[in-house]
Amino acid sequence: MGKYVLKRFGYMLAVLVILSFILFMIYSLVPANRAYNDASNEFKGMKNTLPAGRQQEYFDELYLKYQRMYGTDTDNKVVRYLRWIGLYPLYDGSYDGLLQGNLGYSYEYKKDVVDVVAQPMKNTIKINIFATILALGITIPLGIHCAVKRGSRTDQLVQVLTIIGYSLPTFLISILFIWVFCSKLHIFPPSGMKTPGSNYTGWKKFKDEMYYMALPLITMTFCSLGGMTRYVRASMIEALSMDCIRTARAKGLREKVVIYSHAWRNALIPIVTLVVGWFLGIFGGSIVLENIFAWNGMGRIMIQSLRVADYDLVLLMQMFYIGMSLLGTLVIDIVYGLVDPRVRVNK
Could you tell me if residue 49 is inside a domain? Predict the structure, then answer.
């Protein structure tokens, strides 16, 4: 197992390097020059104090200074990439890249990228953990019940509702829920994360946050029910038709033992891919839901950063998502071996 994990980490590192290089090259083609912008801003404050013949020379000096500071004083894209990673020295011989902890600076928010994403990451994790637990708590028992009672009225009703929920786009469900719960029933607020102007503390703050989180949480959970319920049902139906299940029933085992001890273990293999991926997805956020409900999460900040061309922030977030995806594939393979002893992950 240890050798397998180390080997997979080696593959993951290689893929991460390749994808980071591709992303860096793509964003280097974008017509945005951080050194030029900083030099222009500083030059504006000094322009009136300089003679006309000295202005262009002074601007060129400022521009070169910022180019050397950011490692863009060369047209060699490979050298720029290595400086961004932290494997190639800057003009003065120092290293200041990702490996040294320099994850970028956000010009829109006027602070380091890490400080920008800290709070949105907490918000995204908080709401996604609740939504994932609720969705799994509903879909798994419901899918098992529909598989065991296949063809019953309950099963038929659930299939109709899940296919409707699965077919409707997320933004349409969000708008529908806002219309029902906000416009008609006046139960929840349509957007936001807390009461405007409030400075609650303690229990009042918690209640206020949960009140504003309720509607996006309900929407996220509802959007997850259709696909996962049908997936659990299909896996359980396939597992219940296996020869080992017929043998277990022929031995006189109780139906609950047959379902939850034998059939469920066999049905877990295809389900675990979705479940583990679902848990890892709590860091990603939802671009659609977070923008509709004005929830300050990772998905919303990604869209805002793209709109204002805050590419240091976008690049770091995409690198983070790539790393989480690579880690997710490793976790899924390891969980396969824990769920089913027939699966070996030591080669």
Answer: yes
